[in-house]
Amino acid sequence: MIFISLGTQKFQFNRLLKLVDDLKEEGLIKEEIFAQVGNSDYKPRNYQYLDFLSNEEFTKKMEEASLIISHSGVGTILKAINKDKPIIVAPRLAKFKEHVDDHQIEIAKAFSKKNFCFIYEEGDDLVSLINKAKTHKFDKYVSSKDKVIARLEDYLARLEESL
Predict the structure, then answer these.
(1) Which secondary structure element, helix H or strand E, spans residue 43, and what is its range?
(2) Residue 40: HSE in the Cβ half-sphere, 13 Å Cα cutoff
(3) pLDDT, tens digit (0-9, with 9 covering 90-100), for 106-144
(4) Is residue 64 within 8 Å of 33, Cβ to Cβ?
(5) Do 138 and 82 contact (CB within 8 A), yes or no?
(6) Could you tell me the strand order of the sheet in which 48-50 lies?
(7) Is 118 exposed, middle or buried (0-12, 13-18, 19+ CB in 10 A)?
(8) Residue extents of the structural domains in the chain
(9) How far is CA 48 from the centre of its chain?
(10) Which pTM was predicted?
(11) Strand pairing partners for 69?
(12) CA nearest to 67, candidates 126, 110, 130
């Protein structure tokens, strides 16, 4: 199952939903699809969807998915990476009134540059990206949280000693 996650933002992302709906209708995507459509006006005809999911439902869909297609929400991207799910990130664009600016492009590029995801950009062949993502070896995200905490603790200990 392909899981489409559009987050909980107040903006629509009709463009992505319609593209996937058309590809499904044409038989170019054969796999089952489920979407969390958020505040989008477009309601898919060829796959199941809900406007919003609970945290438990979201986690379940992500675990069941063979592939994630998502807006450039950092939380969703990190969840997919941490669950070892291939992910295609489609940035929301201001020119389509999908967001207030184009910062999602920068987020997608940053994750793609580290080989954590593929980016879908307007005009790309989404079917090819889906097929490629299913066999691509993405890199694993390694958090540096423990290193940051250790450095802070070390700094605070040295600061305390100097007082």
Answers:
(1) none
(2) 25
(3) 999 999 999 999 999 989 999 999 999 999 999 887 777
(4) no
(5) no
(6) 48-50, 33-36, 2-5, 67-70, 87-89, 118-119
(7) buried
(8) 2-161
(9) 18
(10) 0.85
(11) 4, 88
(12) 130
Q: 92 is written with which tokens? A: 């929301």
Topology of the domain comprising 2-161: Rossmann fold (3.40.50)
Along the 163 residues of the chain, how does pLDDT read in single tens digits?
999 999 888 999 999 999 999 999 999 999 999 999 999 999 999 999 999 999 999 999 999 999 999 999 999 999 999 999 999 999 988 888 888 888 899 999 999 999 999 999 989 999 999 999 999 999 887 777 777 787 888 888 887 777 7
At 140 the three-state DSSP class reads coil
- β partners of residue 35: 4, 49
**Any long-range contacts for 46-54 (C-beta under 8 Å, 24+ apart)?**
46/21, 47/20, 47/21, 49/4, 49/17, 52/8
CA angle 98, 67, 84 (to 5 degrees): 110
**What residue type is assigned to position 6 of the chain?**
L
pLDDT at 100: 84
